[in-house]
Design goal:
Low-confidence stretches: 70-100
Strand content: 5-15%
Oligomer: single chain
Mean pLDDT: 84
Structural class: alpha/beta
């Protein structure tokens, strides 16, 4: 059996498309031999590597976003973007506006595996060392802390202290981490959930849009430069449109748009494993 590596990229809400890619493995009756993830890719990767099925992950996402008691649902029914902050815990901690403790609590409740060593599939999570400006790959120890560090977007979430290092969002250095698992597998799959910015003609965008778009521009540039040096065996661009980084309430649209990418992945992977 060929060893298959699955790399899950960063991209905010568009990262829900990773769930649809998991369905490919379930339908083919195989598992990845190793998974790598950055930011939302780290969250999805940790969930799947812990043994949760794609259907179960969808149910968790649904419950978090659309349950009648969910703060996120309250945000969805209101037009004010700042209501999104009800879903998370604003604390103005040093280095960030959001403490992240609510999300950590949710993470522990849903991903019941606490350490990398207890995962059913080996996992590598990408973070960025703040002081040294370098990539830090975590594949052992505290799983939840590594996941939190990987999506700690600078300015929003505070850096995370882990193994004597100060860590921030892994997308700063490696938004699509297929290269870190190339030596561990025979087939490398990279799922790119980034997107080009939709053009708007109704004046300049608000400040938060500029901030998030700046990160997206930077991450796209990193991926394009990396692809010039090395390529995965299968590169899948989900091409999710009309979804901004925070719009998790558009989950159904994300799932539907990801179906074409799922079909592409299934065809290509089927051919490669049959060789």
């Amino acid at each position: 059996m060929k060893r298959i590596g699955l790399a899950l990229g960063s991209g905010g809400a568009r990262g829900l498309a990773h769930i649809i890619m998991f369905e490919v493995f379930e339908e083919l009756g195989i598992n990845p031999s190793i998974i790598s993830g950055t930011s939302i890719g780290a969250i999805m990767g940790a969930s799947y590597a812990s043994g949760i099925t794609s259907k179960e992950i969808k149910e968790v996402v649904n419950d978090l976003i659309f349950h009648k008691n969910s703060k996120f649902w309250q945000f969805y029914t209101k037009s004010d973007y700042t209501k999104m902050l009800d879903f998370i815990d604003v604390g103005f901690k040093p280095g960030g506006l959001i403490k992240g403790e609510k999300f950590l609590k949710i993470l522990r409740e849903e991903i019941k595996v606490n350490s990398f060593e207890d995962l059913k599939i080996p996992l590598k999570i990408v973070t960025t060392e703040y002081w040294d400006h370098e990539q830090i790959i975590i594949d052992s120890g505290d799983l939840h802390k590594a996941v939190i560090a990987s999506f700690s977007l600078p300015g929003l979430f505070p850096p995370v202290n882990c193994n004597s290092k100060l860590l921030i969002d892994g997308g700063m250095v490696n938004p699509l981490p297929y290269d870190i698992i190339e030596d561990d597998c025979d087939i490398t799959i990279a799922i790119d959930v980034s997107a080009k910015k939709d053009k708007q003609t109704n004046g300049p965008p608000p400040s938060y849009e500029v901030l998030f778009s700046a990160f997206q521009i930077m991450q796209n540039s990193i991926v394009q430069e990396k692809l010039k040096r090395t390529k995965p065996d299968i590169l899948v661009n989900t091409k999710i449109k009309g979804v901004r980084i925070h719009e998790f309430m558009k989950s159904e649209s994300i799932y539907n748009q990801a179906e074409k990418a799922k079909d592409k992945l299934k065809r290509k992977l089927s051919r490669l494993i049959e060789k």
